[in-house]
Write a structure and sequence with these properties.
By secondary structure, this protein is of the alpha+beta class. The chain is about 20% helix and about 55% strand.
Amino acid sequence: MNKPMRAMAVFFGLILSAFLMTGCGNGSNSGNVNGNWNASLTNTDGSQAFAFTNTFTETSNGGIDVTNFSFNTAGSCFADQTTSQSGTFSLSGNFNGNVAGTFGMTISTTNGPTPNSLKLQGTVNGGTITGTWTLSGSSACSGNGTFTMNRS
């Protein structure tokens, strides 16, 4: 192969590599994680503990804004309580737009005598997040189990 052809092949190879790298995940697959999600949390005995819906919007540095949060099943630990929500994603993707990575979310009461905190830790796989949860706070508000969250 002569020098001009080789240079052209290298040039197109670099262009193709740059194009392909923009499709790979570096934590900025916001089109694949943003949206409405439904969560179902179960106790270790299999009974339902909590259920909620919310909207995620990915922010910079792996954070997420949680909006439109609403308990469907709040239990006594969150009934009539004002809550705050925060979360994190650490994501990667592939050429088919599938998202994979880690997930964390905290839901905390902001009023009442003793704050209660519900923490979720899990993994993202496409339109599903699964993992474990723990509840701590007042003496009546403790527990743990598993959760599944699906994009709606």
